[in-house]
Write a structure and sequence with these properties.
By secondary structure, the protein is an alpha/beta fold. The protein folds into three domains: 237 residues, Endonuclease, Chain A; 201 residues, polyphosphate kinase like (2-Layer Sandwich), CATH 3.30.1840; 177 residues, Endonuclease, Chain A (2-Layer Sandwich), CATH 3.30.870. 35% of the residues lie in helices and 21% in strands. Strands 1, 15, 19, 20, 21, 22, 24, 25, 26, 27 and 28 form an eleven-stranded mixed beta sheet that branches. Strands 11, 12, 13, 14, 16, 17, 18 and 23 form an eight-stranded mixed beta sheet that branches. The radius of gyration is 28 Å and the shape is globular. It starts with 16 loop residues before the first helix and ends in a 22-residue tail after the last helix.
C-alpha cells in the first residue's frame, strides 16, 4: 500500500509545474491502478475551468468499483469477499433507481444545462451506461470465480442437472408446502393483460404449448420476494457439503405443477428497476399523508433498467420489452445470476472459518466506575465512543435511563433512520408514557425509510410524545439527543452529538462517533437547534455549534481561509477531513485556494469526491484516500491546525452529521459540533484521524484523473490496518480510573 512519508511533501513555493509532473509520473511506476483509467501526465487546469471538478456520478461509480474490487483481496475471508459483490449490486440498484432516474427525467424534459464539471445530462447517461456495463460484467466475473472457490470449500449453488434424486423429492415437497401457495401463474391474453411488475422483482417469462393441441400462450411468473432466493438443501452426513438451490430453478423444475398440461417452449428470467425518487408538493398540508401517497407512486415508477438472462428466446425478449415499454439500449444481458445483491444469502453462519472473526464491541470503563450511571459518567467528564469498536448500547442506555429517571423532565431526539422495533423509539415511548416531555423529530424524507418512519412516528404519537417532521423543503439530518434533568434544584442538560444514525443494527458495522457532554453551552445550542426545527425560529445566537443551511458552510470556508492566512504568513498550516462524500462547489474551490496558499490538506473520502488532487498550481498540496474494508467508514470529522499544524493542542476539531455536498450544506439541517475537551480532542487527532491517515491495508489513493490505486507495501512489511488497530486497542476518553496510559497514540503519515 502507499504510505505518505515526510519526503513526499512538496512545499508550495517548490511546487512548480514541471517538477510536480515528474514527481507524479514517477509515482505511477509503483502505483498499481486497478480502478479507472491508467495514470496520465497531469494537465494544467485553471480555477475557472469546469474540468477542475470530477463528475459526481462517475466518482460514485468509481467508489462502487472499489467496493467490488475488494472481492479480489484474498486477505479477506472468502464469504466476506462474496459480501462485497452483493453490496456492489445493492449499491448499483439504488444508483439506478435514484440518480439515473433523475438524469433520465432531465433528458426527457429536454434539459441541456451542464453539471459543474461541464457534462450535459445526456453525456452523463452515456458515460454512466458504459461504466455500469463494465461494472456489471465485473460482478459476474467475480461471482464466477468465487463460486468455484466456494465449491472447493464445500459450499455449492447446485445447478438443476446436479440435483440428486433424494434432493428432488425434498424439493418437490418444499415447493408444494412453501412456494406453490404464494405463486400466481399469469397467462397473458386479451382477457388477462400484462400485470404490473414491481421494482427488483425476479420474474420468469414463459412460452407454453398445450399438450396434444396447437394453442400457444405467453405466461408470467413473478417470483415471490417473501421467500428466500436460495434454498438450503437438507444436510447429508455431518461435515458434508452445504448445498443451495436457486428459487427460480426450483420453480422451473415444478412448471408442470404450475401449468399442468402444457409444455415449455421457452423461458427467460428478468428483473426490472423502477424510478424510486419521490416528489412532494410544497404546499402539502399533511406531510404524513403526502408521503404515504408518494410511496404508492414510487412503487409504480417508470422502468429505468431491465436485466435479462442472456439465454432468453428472442420472441420472449421482444414481448417483454414491448409490454414494459423498454428500449433495447436499456437492457442488460446477464450471463450468470440475475440480481447480484441476493448473493448475500449464501453467506452461511456455520462456516465461521470463512467469515470475519467475531468481534465484541468494548464497553467504556468509565461507566463501570460509575456503576453504569450514564449521567454521573458524563457529568464527571465528556467522553467519546467510537462505533462499532465501542458499543452503541451506551446510547440506548442513555435514553433508557432518561426514560426511567424521575429527575428527568424532558427529552428531545432526532430520528433520521432507525431500526424496526427500535429500542430508541421504545425508550422515548416509555418516557412519554411516564409523563416526561418528549419531542421526537422524525424525518419522513429519509430515502427508502419513509414508510418505517411513518410507523415509528405514529407509535410515538400514541404514547403521548410530541412528534414533528421538520421542514417540507429540507431534510433534518442532524444527529442529536438532549436530556434535561433536575439536579440540586437546577436544570442540567446532557447532550449527545453523533455522526451517524440512531440505528443499533448499522452501528455494528458503520464507523461513527458518539460524543456525550454536559457542557452548558453545547446543551443550550442543541436546544436552540431543536427549537429551530420545531418552531422555525432561526437561531441567531448559537455559541459553539454551527448548522446548515444557515452558517455551517460559511464557517468551514472561513476556517480554510484562516489556514491559508497561516500558510502565507509562514506558519504551519494543515487540514485533515474525513467524509463520506465531497462535491460542494464552494468548498471544493476553497480547498483549492488553501492548497494554492500552501496549506497541506489530507482528505479521507470514502465515496463521491469531486476534488482533483495533485494538479500543478491548483491542488498540489491535496492528498485524498478512500478506506474500504471490514467496516463502512461513516464518521465526519474536520481538523484545522490553527497555525501549529496537526496534531496540535490548539487545533480546532469538529465532528458533524454533514458531508460536504450541496444537499448537506444548502438543503438540510445538519450540525457541526466543536470538540473542546482536551482528552476527546486527543482521541480524535491521535487515534481516530491518525490511524485512518496511516492506514495502508484498506486504502485506495486517489489520482488526479479520478482513478484510484492500491499502493505497495515494502517487502516483508505488514500493512497498517486501521480497523485492526481500533479493534485491538482501547480509546482514550472512555477509559476509567485506570487512565489512558495503555491507549496508544499515533502520528499520522503523509
Amino acid at each position: 500500500m502507499v504510505t505518505f512519508e515526510a519526503s513526499d511533501v512538496v512545499d508550495a513555493e517548490e511546487a512548480v509545474g514541471a517538477d510536480l509532473r515528474a514527481e507524479r509520473n514517477a509515482r505511477a511506476d509503483f502505483l498499481n491502478t486497478e480502478v479507472g483509467a491508467p495514470l496520465k501526465t497531469v494537465p494544467d487546469i485553471g480555477m475557472d475551468e469546469p474540468e477542475r471538478f470530477i463528475n459526481r456520478e462517475l466518482s460514485w461509480l468509481a467508489f462502487n468499483q472499489r467496493v467490488l474490487a475488494e472481492a479480489d483481496d484474498r486477505r479477506h475471508p472468502l464469504l466476506e469477499r462474496l459480501r462485497f459483490v452483493a453490496i456492489s449490486g445493492s449499491n448499483l440498484d439504488e444508483f439506478y433507481t435514484v440518480r439515473v432516474a433523475g438524469l433520465r427525467e432531465l433528458v426527457n424534459a429536454g434539459v441541456t444545462r451542464t453539471s459543474v464539471d461541464g457534462l450535459t445530462p445526456a453525456q452523463q447517461l452515456d458515460k454512466i451506461d458504459a461504466e455500469c456495463r463494465t461494472l456489471m460484467h465485473g460482478q459476474q466475473d467475480r461471482w464466477a470465480g468465487l463460486r468455484r472457490e466456494m465449491e472447493a470449500e464445500g459450499i455449492m449453488l447446485v445447478r438443476r442437472g446436479d440435483i440428486a434424486d433424494g434432493e428432488r423429492q425434498w424439493l418437490d415437497a418444499y415447493f408444494m408446502d412453501n412456494v406453490f401457495p404464494v405463486l400466481s401463474p399469469l397467462a397473458i391474453d386479451p382477457a388477462h393483460p400484462f400485470p404490473f411488475v414491481p421494482s427488483k422483482a425476479l420474474s420468469m417469462a414463459l412460452q407454453l404449448r398445450q399438450r396434444g393441441g396447437e394453442g400457444e400462450i405467453d405466461a408470467l411468473l413473478i417470483i415471490p420476494a417473501q421467500i428466500e432466493r436460495f434454498i438450503r438443501l437438507p444436510a447429508g452426513e455431518e461435515g458434508g457439503p452445504i448445498r443451495f438451490v436457486a428459487l427460480e430453478d426450483m420453480v422451473a423444475l415444478s412448471l408442470d405443477r404450475i401449468f399442468p398440461g402444457y409444455d415449455v417452449l421457452g423461458a427467460g428470467l428478468f428483473r426490472v428497476l423502477r424510478d424510486s425518487d419521490m416528489e412532494i408538493e410544497e404546499e402539502a398540508e399533511d406531510l404524513v399523508r403526502e408521503f404515504e401517497t408518494a410511496l404508492k407512486r414510487r412503487r409504480r415508477g417508470e422502468v429505468i433498467r431491465l436485466k435479462m438472462s442472456s439465454d432468453t428466446p428472442e420472441s420472449l425478449r421482444t414481448w417483454i420489452l414491448h409490454e414494459l415499454r423498454v428500449g433495447r439500449n436499456e437492457v442488460i444481458d446477464v450471463e450468470g445470476v440475475v440480481g447480484v445483491s441476493d448473493l448475500e444469502q449464501l453467506i452461511v453462519d456455520d462456516r465461521p472459518d470463512l467469515r470475519w472473526r467475531n468481534y465484541t464491541p468494548r464497553r467504556p470503563e468509565r461507566l463501570n466506575d460509575f456503576h453504569n450511571d450514564c449521567f454521573a459518567a458524563i457529568a464527571y467528564k465528556d467522553f467519546l465512543l467510537h462505533h462499532p469498536y465501542e458499543t452503541f448500547d451506551v446510547v440506548v442506555e442513555f435514553l433508557r435511563q432518561a426514560a426511567c429517571d424521575p429527575n428527568v423532565l424532558a427529552i428531545k431526539q432526532t430520528l433520521y433512520r432507525t431500526s424496526n422495533q427500535s429500542p430508541i423509539v421504545a425508550a422515548l415511548c416509555e418516557a412519554a408514557e411516564l409523563g416526561k416531555q418528549v419531542t421526537a423529530l422524525v424525518e419522513l424524507k429519509a430515502r427508502f425509510d419513509e414508510a418505517a418512519n411513518i410507523v415509528q412516528a405514529r407509535q410515538l404519537e400514541r404514547a403521548g410524545a410530541q412528534v414533528v417532521y421538520g421542514f417540507i423543503d429540507w431534510k433534518t439530518h442532524a444527529k442529536m439527543s438532549s436530556v434535561v434533568r433536575r439536579e440540586n434544584g437546577k436544570l442540567v442538560t446532557y447532550t449527545h452529538y453523533g455522526t451517524g444514525n440512531y440505528h443499533p443494527i448499522t452501528a455494528k458495522f458503520y464507523t461513527d462517533l458518539s460524543y456525550f457532554t454536559a457542557d452548558k453551552t453545547l446543551g443550550r445550542d442543541a436546544g436552540r437547534v431543536f427549537n429551530y426545527v420545531t418552531g422555525y425560529a432561526e437561531p441567531r445566537d448559537l455559541a459553539k455549534v454551527s448548522i446548515s443551511p444557515i452558517g455551517m458552510k460559511t464557517r468551514l470556508i472561513e476556517m480554510l481561509e484562516a489556514e491559508a492566512d497561516h500558510a502565507r504568513a509562514g506558519r504551519p498550516a494543515q487540514v485533515w477531513a474525513k467524509l463520506n462524500s465531497l462535491m460542494e462547489v464552494d468548498l471544493v474551490d476553497a480547498l483549492y485556494r488553501a492548497s494554492q496558499a500552501g496549506v497541506r490538506i489530507d482528505l479521507i473520502v470514502r465515496g463521491i469526491c469531486g476534488v482533483r488532487p495533485g494538479v500543478p498550481g491548483m491542488s498540489e498540496n491535496i492528498r485524498i484516500k478512500s478506506i474500504i474494508g471490514r467496516y463502512l467508514e461513516h464518521s465526519r470529522i474536520v481538523c484545522f491546525g490553527c497555525g501549529e499544524g496537526l496534531p496540535g493542542e490548539n487545533a480546532a476539531v469538529f465532528i458533524s452529521s454533514a458531508d460536504w455536498m450541496d444537499r448537506n450544506l444548502n438543503r438540510r439541517v445538519e450540525a457541526l459540533c466543536p470538540i473542546d475537551n482536551p482528552t476527546v480532542k486527543r482521541q480524535i487527532l491521535q487515534q481516530v484521524m491518525a490511524a485512518n491517515l496511516r492506514d495502508e491495508a484498506n486504502t485506495w489513493v486517489m489520482n488526479w484523473d479520478g482513478s484510484y490505486s492500491h499502493g505497495t507495501t515494502p517487502t516483508g512489511a505488514e500493512p497498517f490496518d486501521c480497523h485492526e488497530f481500533f479493534m485491538k486497542y482501547p480509546s482514550i476518553s472512555g477509559r476509567g480510573r485506570a487512565g489512558a496510559d495503555d491507549a496508544p497514540l499515533l502520528s499520522a503519515m503523509r
